[in-house]
């Protein structure tokens, strides 16, 4: 692939991103990771900048979100990212996605109610390829768990990005959720204490799964580090780490996501095979 041509500012932010990811993954220094992310975002300023600087800023926020969650400071996440993007409609899709999932996992979906609505109403965002999947995420993890069935139906019916088949499928999901909601109200629900304990367990399992996966990746990469002819070890680790964070939206704790993770590992192996194949290897220097 082509090497990214960093501007001096983007290069500085990218170096801070690499440091932040290393602190998070290798050293588990979550506070240090957040500090590097903040320094990186501050160095990029408030403007939109180039595509490369926007991508670095988004990645800094992704690492920062995970670090804050690891310190159980998830309540700060939304205000933390909004200090760099100012208004919800400017949030990158990856950042919005992680925020929706995080507040869903800690059973606080109402935090994302207005934020998600504002983002989805924005005309510029409607042209993004991720719009449909984010609308579905907002529907399943925010509106339906809060019992906002009328709002969900209005959102789906008023969305010109969805085709008729998608609209019918979403409306059917809303109808099923409404029925389940009515049934649950007739039954005895678990106490709030049990729900809170469940939320902590889920978040803990998610973090543990992430750290286990990254530890395995780190060991595999270290064992092959002597063969890194084309890509520095830390950059490969960082790229894999950021890619894995995006996969979190499929919830690694869920059996349905396992085939996707296996495919991800296979793709990684194929990419690695291409990198170290004899054709790509530089001649050995005496």
TrEMBL record:
Q: Which Pfam families match?
A: Pex26
Q: Name one GO cellular component term.
A: peroxisomal membrane
Q: Which GO terms describe its molecular function?
A: ATPase binding; protein-containing complex binding
Q: Which GO biological process annotations does it have?
A: protein import into peroxisome matrix; protein import into peroxisome membrane
Lineage, top-rank taxon, reads Eukaryota
Matching InterPro entries, A to Z? Pex26
What name does UniProt use for this protein? PEX26 protein
Q: What is the lineage of its organism?
A: Eukaryota, Metazoa, Chordata, Craniata, Vertebrata
Q: Which gene encodes it?
A: Pex26
């Amino acid at each position: 692939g082509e090497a990214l041509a960093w501007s001096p500012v983007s290069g500085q932010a990218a170096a801070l991103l690499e440091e932040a990811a290393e602190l998070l993954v290798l050293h588990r220094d979550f506070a240090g990771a957040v500090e590097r992310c903040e320094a990186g975002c501050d160095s990029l300023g408030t403007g939109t900048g180039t595509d490369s600087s926007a991508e670095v800023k988004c990645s800094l926020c992704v690492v920062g979100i995970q670090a804050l969650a690891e310190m159980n400071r998830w309540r700060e996440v939304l205000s933390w990212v909004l200090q760099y993007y100012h208004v919800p409609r400017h949030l990158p899709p990856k950042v919005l996605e992680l925020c929706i999932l995080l507040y869903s996992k800690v059973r606080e979906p109402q935090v994302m109610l207005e934020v998600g609505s504002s983002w989805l109403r924005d005309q510029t965002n409607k042209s993004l390829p991720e719009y449909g999947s984010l609308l579905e995420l907002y529907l399943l993890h925010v509106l339906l768990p809060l019992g906002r069935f009328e709002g969900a139906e209005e959102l789906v019916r008023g969305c010109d990005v969805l085709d008729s088949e998608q609209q019918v499928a979403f409306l059917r999901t809303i109808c099923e959720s409404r029925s389940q909601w009515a049934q649950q109200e007739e039954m005895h629900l678990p106490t709030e204490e049990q729900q809170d304990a469940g939320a902590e367990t889920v978040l803990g399992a998610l973090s543990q799964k992430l750290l286990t996966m990254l530890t395995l990746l780190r060991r595999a990469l270290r064992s092959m580090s002597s063969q890194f002819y084309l890509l520095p070890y830390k950059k490969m680790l960082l790229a894999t780490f950021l890619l894995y964070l995006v996969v979190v939206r499929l919830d690694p704790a869920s059996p349905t996501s396992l085939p996707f993770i296996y495919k991800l590992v296979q793709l990684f192996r194929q990419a690695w095979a291409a990198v170290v194949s004899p054709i790509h290897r530089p001649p050995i220097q005496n």
